[in-house]
Design a protein that fits this description.
This protein is an alpha+beta fold and about 500 residues long. Helices cover about 45% and strands about 10% of the residues. A four-stranded mixed β-sheet has the order 4-3-1-7, with helices on one face. A three-stranded antiparallel β-sheet has the order 2-9-8. Strand 5 and strand 6 (about 165) form a beta hairpin. The longest helix is centred in the last third of the chain and has 45 residues, at about 355-395. About 35% of the residues are buried. InterPro entries: Ariadne, BRcat_RBR_TRIAD1, E3_UB_ligase_RBR, IBR_dom, Rcat_RBR_TRIAD1, TRIAD_supradom, Znf_RING/FYVE/PHD. Its main location: nucleus. GO terms for molecular function: ubiquitin protein ligase activity; zinc ion binding.
């Protein structure tokens, strides 16, 4: 990439990052109305409750991040721009291009500059494998390289690459690209020339303040997206920027709109599956959605009487059989969920292509069904969570205890969602995992987690039915029932943390 170091005008620093005032941090904090079917804060307030019961205090998903307003992120960028501009003795507009190209690795830029000992008189910087120097000279020709018109010298503009064009052609070039949403990527008009134009060269060429404001917004977007420590919140119309010390595939949550996402890829959080794998999985699900439609239906035939049944709760324990495999529940045991592990055909490589294709589809549908089932369970358990919330509120209003007295039910439902969310994303991970001892260990831990989540789900649903008075009495759990529920929370969270510690992308 080439960068012009003979930038035309001085930078105005903060003004050049500017956007309209309504996008600044004085905005109303009210985001979109929360979907009542989601448990958005299930990562909050549960860990300490579980740790008090003796669970491992280290959570592999712990990750330090800061939510910055537009002005705060602006200050972070300006400080780094000024540092590089002063060290390299270039204008801030040029420093920004250098920083974008090297992902705002300030220390790396300064180290490379110090090693190469570039003289202060350098006027052009080219970033390929090393720093290179080129001296700008005024073009001798007065003919525009685009419209081929001979123009006055003061109407002819050129970057240090010596490709000169008239001001009208430059204006049209910049205007079209900015209208197309281009910010930092505006480069010289000459064919095969990659020299990028600094913002103080582009801004005077743009007609009207509205287009200039758009250009500044696109620049800010490009600066943040190229920064190795920053990410724009993917929430709709959200101006928040997330800042971290070390960029990793970890869970972050916007403080303004509550959007939860993976810092590295800005997609839905997906531990223990890595970013590349979840992209492949979601693409495959989208491509094969029609094939999988029949398997993702929410009804099945009872294995005993063949009557069509529908699942109305998150737990997979259907009285005496398993919803997933329709097998006898008693055979599942408490240590290993056999139906969560796909049984490969060891002789499939020696069979016909048609047989291999059927086996591949069978394998995909196995994992897809379980992926979809846990997603459905999350939605159904969110309804249970809402009922528990409403019942707790009702009891507190009727002076039947305080919020603290009933908080264990609230925490149990949140922890259940947290654990099931992790379990859902173990299936794409397992689908793409190579066979071997590591996969066997993963499947064992996955099965243990699944067993404890189903136990927790059953206990939470049982607590919900008690609280609604469905099961005799006034609807109160005994002290032993409460202790059993809290102990199950502790076990499920331990299973979740153990799996993530061993298999999360670290």
């Amino acid at each position: 990439m080439s960068v012009d170091m003979n930038s035309q005008a001085s930078d105005s620093n903060e003004e050049d990052f500017g956007v309209n005032s309504e996008e600044e941090d004085d905005e109303d904090d009210g985001g979109e109305e929360e979907d009542p079917g989601d448990i958005e804060a299930y990562y909050e307030g549960v860990a300490s409750d579980v740790e008090q019961q003796g669970a491992d205090s280290f959570d592999p998903e712990e990750y330090l991040f800061t939510c910055l307003t537009y002005k705060e992120s602006q200050r972070v960028l300006i400080e780094e721009v000024n540092t590089v501009a002063a060290a390299l003795k270039v204008l801030p507009a040029v420093a920004k291009l250098i920083l974008v190209h090297l992902h705002w690795q300030v220390s790396q830029i300064l180290d490379r500059y110090a090693l190469l000992l570039l003289p202060p008189s350098s006027t052009t910087l080219v970033f390929d494998d090393m720093f290179m120097i080129s001296v700008f000279q005024v073009p001798q020709s007065l003919q525009c390289g685009v419209c081929l018109q001979v123009v006055r010298r003061d109407s002819l503009l050129a970057l240090p690459c010596q490709h000169s064009f008239c001001k009208a052609c430059w204006e049209q070039h910049c205007t079209v690209l900015v209208k197309d949403g281009i910010g930092v990527g505006i480069s010289c008009m000459a064919q095969d020339c990659s020299l990028q134009m600094p913002e103080d060269f582009v801004l005077p060429l743009l007609p009207g303040e509205e287009l200039k404001d758009k250009y500044r917004r696109y620049l800010f977007r490009d600066y943040v997206e190229s920064h190795f420590q920053l990410q724009l919140c993917p929430g709709a119309d959200c101006p928040i920027v997330i800042k971290v010390q070390e960029p990793r595939a970890r869970r972050v949550q916007c403080s303004r709109c509550s959007e939860v996402f993976c810092f590295k890829c800005r997609q839905m959080y997906h531990a223990p599956t890595d970013c590349a794998t979840i992209r492949k999985w979601l693409t495959k699900c989208a491509d094969d959605s029609e094939t999988a439609n029949y398997i993702s239906a929410h009804t099945k035939d009872c294995p005993k009487c063949n009557i069509c049944i529908e699942k109305n709760g998150g737990c997979n324990h259907m009285v005496n059989f398993c919803w997933m495999c329709l097998g006898d529940w008693k055979t599942h045991g408490s240590e290993y969920y056999e139906c969560s592990r796909y049984k490969e055909n060891p002789d499939i490589v020696n069979q016909s292509q048609q047989a291999q294709a059927r086996e591949a589809l069978k394998k995909y549908l196995f994992y897809f069904e379980r992926w979809e089932n846990h997603n459905k369970s999350l939605q159904l358990e969110a309804q249970t969570y809402q009922r528990i919330q409403e019942k707790i509120q009702e009891r507190v209003m009727n002076n039947l205890g305080t919020w603290i007295d009933w908080q264990y039910l609230h925490n149990a439902a949140k922890l259940l969602a947290k654990c099931r969310y992790t379990l859902q994303y173990t299936y794409p991970y397992a689908y793409y995992m190579e066979s071997g001892p590591r996969k066997k260990l993963f499947e064992y831990q996955q099965a243990q987690l699944e067993a404890e989540i189903e136990n927790l789900s059953w206990k939470v649903e049982r607590a919900d039915t008690y609280e609604r008075g469905v099961v005799g009495g006034e609807g109160e759990l005994s002290a032993s029932d409460r202790g059993d529920l809290e102990n199950q929370m502790h076990i499920a969270e331990q299973r979740r943390r153990t799996l993530l510690k061993d298999f999360h992308d670290t």
